[in-house]
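Predict the assembly for these two chains.
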Amino acid sequence: MVIFALFLLSSNLGKRGSWNPAEQILIEITAPFQRFVTHTINYTEGLWLKYFALINLRNENDGLKKEIYALRMENYRCRELLATNKRLQELLHFTETFNWPGSAAQVIGRDPSGWFESILIDKGKQSKFKVNMPVLDARGVVGRLVSVSPNYSKALLIIDQNSAVDCIVQRSREKGIVKGVSEKICKLEYVVKTGDVAVGDTVITSGMGRVFPKGLPVGEVIEVKSSPGELFLNITVKPMVDFSKLEEVLIVLKEDPLSSNRKEKD
Amino acid sequence: MVWMVGVAIILVRGDVANQIKVAFFEVDLVTIITGYLLISHGQVWAGFFAFGQGLLMDCYSAGLVGLFTLLYMTAFLGMSIGSRFFDPNSPRSMILLVIIAVLVKGLLFMVLLNAFSFETGFRHSILLSICISAIISGLLAPFVGHVFNQMDRFFRKKRKSEI
């Protein structure tokens, strides 16, 4: 075999041509095997790179997804904090307009009966809250505290049928009492027919009821009717506060003005 | 477990009503559960449940103290008396009992509102909403009872397997 190889070498010295017939036959027979081997190697390499190596990629993908979720949640929290901050700042600006000290509290529940209008807030006696303290929002009067426990309080909203707030019309200084009718509407009662009240007038607290400080916005007059045979005007007031979106409220820390007339409830 | 469900209903109810505004057309789940307890656990448990849920409702509501306790006890008494005339184990009787209880409760509520001179008054729309609430609650009562029965069986099996 060595002699045959030497013979092939020496006989082809100086020749550079294509494959001779014997070589061609050899190539034709062996090339498919080579192609198979190459494909197998390529397939194995591909499998390794595209599958086994993807296990890490998959783990990495899962990690990145988790990170995205975490960042998204953080983003929501930040937005929520920003919104809360904005609302609290509005409350703070509102408190600066009068001299009473105030304390912000979170609304944690609503009246479950569906018939009455009250809210539950997350602060109570420990925050020096007492019965009949005014409850406000950045836009106006919300209600007053009616029940207080060490850590929670219940506030009666001005839209409740049992609520009555002594008010005046800001422009004409006409006096009346705002009573709750529904979530969107109150009535300004006991304004005489000759009273000067027009649609668009702002209704504010009079300070006469001794619960609310004077001058706090309560609502806006949206309808004035004068029915024959009645002594008073029929005035509909839209509250300044959107009670369906109450989240934080401000409690004015003033002594219960009605406590001198009755025993302390709390 | 039934107590937990009852408490959860009262705590969540206000927020849900605020979101979807169906307070007048709501399903009176507390009355339905009282009816279920009356049939499955007897008068004592049902009465105790109605009383407790009423007290809890009074605490969270801005209404008169004792108003909802009285209303739920009235509903319980209505069902308790009604169960003597009907077979409480049949779904039809259950539907009737709950409808009667919710109607009686709603009507008493309206009478009390007028008696204590609230401004609501006796309006046809409120009466209609009470009737709708009673019918929906009644129709749902057998289904809710079935769900509680299934849950009760599941927890009993679980307890037995633990022992």
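The mean pLDDT of chain B is 79. Residues 124-162 of chain B form the longest helix (39 residues).
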